[in-house]
Write a structure and sequence with these properties.
The structure holds 2 protein chains of 2 kinds. Chain A is α+β, with helices and mostly antiparallel strands. Chain A has a single domain (about 10-135), classed as Molybdopterin biosynthesis MoaE subunit (Aldehyde Oxidoreductase, domain 3). In chain A, about 30% of the residues lie in helices and about 35% in strands. Chain A has helices spanning about 10-15, 50-70, 100-115, and strands at about 25-30, 35, 40-50, 75-80, 80-85, 90-95, 120-125, 130-135. In chain A, strands 2, 3, 5, 7 and 8 form a 5-stranded antiparallel beta sheet that branches. Chain A has a 3-stranded antiparallel beta sheet with strand order 1-6-4. In chain A, a hairpin with a 2-residue loop joins strand 2 and strand 3 (about 40-50). Chain B is α+β, with helices and mostly antiparallel strands. Chain B has a domain at about 25-55. Helices cover about 25% and strands about 25% of the residues of chain B. The radius of gyration of chain B is 12 Å and the shape is globular. The chains are: A alpha+beta, B alpha+beta. The interface of A and B includes residues 90 and 118 of A.
Chain lengths: ~140, ~80
């Protein structure tokens, strides 16, 4: 969990691991959309988390993805606090030898994070209304 | 034991956490919480004990950290 902006490129550039056997780098960035809500639209989302449990669950999901799909490395990041439209709220990086296991792993990780990691969000609309939002 | 409220449940109870004693199981704890915060009766939530989702039959301990989690909405 982080309060800072998430930058996929700088995360990739900071990896120190030996990745010479990784032929597939897959990055997913989930961004805040300016969804239309009646006669208004979403300006930003405020994320809140049960941080200690969220970090434990994300570590478990990283380990599960490595064990289940045989990928080499997984990175999961999620913002807390205010995230504006077009900013990245959620990032997953999967490095693997081949693309097939990478795509399977990234789909698994996204689904598990969205259903298991204790994070909640409030949408702040352009008409200044604020509403809790559940996942579809 | 410490009870934590998250998301919309924090708005409904008006508090982030409370400290209570004397509940040995979740049934007794839920009954107490709904009496103290009647708005919780209409809410859907799961309960985590010491960072793990809890089954209904778990025995509570005085030093447990118990969190009421509304439906998860990350991503």
């Amino acid at each position: 969990m982080t309060n800072e902006k998430i930058d996929g490129n700088s995360i990739l550039n900071s990896l120190n691991d030996d990745l010479s056997d990784c032929g597939s780098f897959i990055i997913f960035e989930g961004k805040v959309r300016a969804d239309k809500v009646e006669d208004s639209f979403v300006e930003k989302i405020i994320y809140e988390a049960y941080t200690e449990m969220a970090e434990r669950e994300m570590s478990k999901i990283e380990k599960e993805a490595i064990e289940k799909f045989g990928v080499k490395k997984v990175i999961i990041k999620h913002r807390v606090g205010e995230v504006k439209v077009k900013e990245t709220a959620f990032l997953v990086v999967v490095l693997s030898a081949h693309r097939q296991e990478g795509f399977s792993a990234i789909q698994y990780i996204i689904d598990e994070v969205k259903s298991r990691v204790p994070i909640w969000k409030k949408e702040v609309l352009s008409n200044e209304k604020i509403r809790w939002r559940e996942n579809d | 034991m410490k009870i934590l409220f998250f998301g919309r449940l924090k708005d409904i109870t008006g508090v982030e956490e409370i400290e209570i004693n004397g509940h040995e199981n979740l049934e007794s704890l839920k009954k107490f919480l709904i009496e103290k915060f009647p708005g919780l009766r209409r809410e859907v939530f799961t309960i985590a004990i010491n960072f793990e989702i809890a089954g209904d039959d778990i025995k509570l301990k005085q030093d447990d950290e118990i969190a009421l989690l509304p439906p998860i909405a990350g991503g």
